[in-house]
Amino acid sequence: MGGGENNREWEFHMRSIASGARDSNAAVDLSLLNSVKRLCELCKNEKSEESIARIYPHLNRIFQRAVASISQSQTSCGLLLLAIVQFFLDFGDAVLHDADPSLRTFFRSCLSREFADPAVAEATLYFLEKNKRKLSSAFPALLPQFFPLLLKLLAWNGEKLESIFLRVFPGLISIGSFLSLFPPLLDLPILAVALEKVEKSSGPLVGNSIASIQKSTAPEMLLALMDEAYTGSTVGDAGTDVESVDNTIALSDPLFLELLKDENDGLAERNWTSPAMTATLQAVTNAPQSDRLKQALRIAPRLLDVYFTTAIHDVNDALLCSLIPILMVRYSMLFPDKIFSYEVQKRILEFMLAAFHRSPNFVALLKKPITDRLGEAYNSLAKVSRLMTVPYEIQ
User: For residue 384, how many C-alpha atoms fall within 13 Å in the half-sphere facing its CB?
Assistant: First the structure.
C-alpha cells in the first residue's frame, strides 16, 4: 500500500473490519460500513492482489454473520451487505469468490425484509444500475428471478425511485421472465394496496427508525406469505393472528400470495373474481386513494411503455405471439380507475397493432384462439369489437 498516509488509513480500517469479523455485534456498526467502503476504494486505487486477499476473509465472515443476525438485529444490515457484495463483484476473480450466492442471499435474506426502508431501497437500485453490465453478462438470471421483490420495492417507495428503477428495469426482462412479468406490471396498483393492507394489519413496514421496522411483524408476515405460497403451510401456523387482519384481504387467498411473493416462479393465473379481490377492489373504490396508490397508478403505464418497446425490438416471435392472448384477457381486468384503465388499454392496443405489423402471420395464427377467449372473457360488445379490429388495421 503506497504512501505513509494511505498506510495509516489502511491499517486503521483493517483493524476495524478485523474486529468486526470477530465480534458478531459489530456487523451492523455504521463505522464498519465506512471502513468497508474505504478499503474497497483503496484496493481499486492500488490494484494490489495482496491487499484484496487480506481483506476478503474478514468481509466474508462479516457478511455471513450479518445475514445470520438479520432477523434479530435492531438495525439495518442492508447498506453494509451491499458494500460487501460490491467488493465480491469487483474482486471476486482475484479471491476465487463466486458472487452469485451472495447476491441471492442479499435479495432473499435482506431485501425481502428491508425493501420498505427508503435508504436500502435507493441504495439497492443504484447498486443494480452501477453493476448492470456485469450482472447482465455474469448473472443474467438474477434480476428476472427477483423482479417481484423489486416491484414491491417500487410499489412501496413510489415515484421518488421511479427514474432509477426505469434505468434498471430492462434487466428484469428475459426469456424466462417476459410473460410472467406482464401481469405484475399491470397489477402494480393492487400490489400497493396489498402492501398497505399488510401494514395496516401488522404494523408499519417502515417507521421513523430502522429499529421500528425490525420490531414490526410486517416483514415477517410477508415472509410467512411467501412460505405459504411455496410450502403450503398456513400463515396461522406461524403464529400470525389471522383474525386481526383486515377482512378485505384474505391472507390465504392465492391471488394475494401471488402478489406478495418475492421470486418469479412462472406465469400464474390471477383470479380477479376471487372473494378477496372483489372485496378489496370494492373497498378501494369506495375510499379515497392513498398517495402510494396514486403514484402506482401513474407509474404502471410508464413501465408498460418500456416493456412493450423492449418486446417489439428484442423479443422473438414465439414469446410475442404467446403474449397477445394474455393481453386480450387482461384488457378489461384492470384496477378500477378510469384514467389508469384508459392509459393501459391505449398502450395495449398500440402494442398489439405494432406486433401484428411486425409479424403479420399472427393474424391467422391467433384469430381463432383470440376470438374464443374474448367470447369467454368480455361482456362488452364494444370492447370485443375494438379489440377484434386490431388485426385488420394492418391491412
Answer: 13
SS3 89: helix
| Rounded Cα–Cα distance for residues 13 and 139 (Å) | 30
Burial grade of 378 (CB within 10 A; 0-12, 13-18, 19 or more): middle
Tell me the CB-side half-sphere exposure of residue 127, using CA atoms within 13 A: 25
Contact indicator for 106, 70 with CB cutoff of 8 Å: no
Q: 374 and 387 in contact (C-beta within 8 Å)?
A: yes
Contact 81, 106 (CB under 8 A): yes
Is the separation of the CB atoms in 3 and 42 below 8 Å? no
Task: Report the alpha-carbon angle 305-271-241, nearest 5.
Answer: 110
What is the rounded distance in angstroms from the CA atom of residue 17 to the CA atom of residue 32? 6
**C-alpha atoms less than 13 angstroms from C-alpha of 373 in its C-beta half-sphere:** 16
3-state secondary structure of 332: coil
Q: What angle do CA 77, 209, 260 make, to 5 degrees?
A: 65
- Distance between the two ends of the chain, CA-based, in angstroms? 70
DSSP helix/strand/coil, 176: coil
Rounded Cα distance, 241 and 222, in Å: 14
> How many helices and strands in the chain, by DSSP H and E?
22, 0
Higher pLDDT: 39 or 251? It is 39
Residue 146 backbone phi and psi in degrees, to 5: -105, 20
Tracing cell 430492462 back to the chain, one arrives at 170
Q: Can you give the pTM of this predicted structure? A: 0.83
The domain locations on the chain are 141-210+254-388
Q: What is the pLDDT of residues 196-215, one digit of tens each?
A: 988 887 776 653 332 333 34
Enumerate residues 6+ apart whose C-beta is below 8 A from 51: 1, 10, 42, 43
CA distance 124 to 20: 23
Q: Distance between CA 14 and CA 43 in Å, rounded?
A: 12
**Residue 290: DSSP 8-state:** P
